[in-house]
Amino acid sequence: LDIGPQTAAQLAEQLKAAGSIVWNGPVGVFEFDAFAHGTETIARAIAASSAFSIAGGGDTLAAIAKYGIEQDVGYISTGGGA
Fold first, then answer.
1. CA distances, 37 to each of 1, 43, 73, 81 (Å)
2. Considering the chain, what is the average pLDDT of its residues?
3. Based on the number of CB atoms within 10 Å of its own CB, is 51 exposed (0-12), middle (13-18) or buried (19 or more)?
4. 24: exposed, middle or buried (C-beta count within 10 Å: 0-12, 13-18, 19+)?
5. Theoretical Cys-Cys bridge with 77: which of 11, 54, 56, 66, CB 3.0 to 4.6 Å?
6. Tens of pLDDT, residues 5-45
7. In the beta sheet, which residues pair with residue 30?
8. Kind and range of the H or E run holding 8
């Protein structure tokens, strides 16, 4: 119910080198600590990246809040679905 640590590390390296990032969803059931490592790794990589980042979606916003990276995401969309 989560991506593996090697996959998380590979994605984090790619995100740190990106020019722009669009994040639409966690990569695991981050609400449970046992499955949160992948989403936390991705969230912290986005926060550390110099890329312009856009994030949206209810679960994404919850992950951003859980890891306290609100100030490190370029734009957070709070718009709802149809």
1. 11, 10, 19, 27
2. 94
3. middle
4. exposed
5. 56
6. 999 999 999 998 999 999 999 999 999 999 999 999 999 99
7. none
8. helix 5-16
Q: Give the rounded distance of the alpha carbon of 18 from its chain centre.
A: 14
**Per-residue DSSP letter, 55:** E
Mean pLDDT of 54-70: 94
Residues in the chain: 82
Condensed to tens digits (0 to 9), the pLDDT of residues 71-80 reads: 999 999 987 6
Which residues contact residue 39 at a Cβ distance below 8 angstroms, ignoring those fewer than 6 apart? Answer: 2, 26, 27, 28, 30, 63
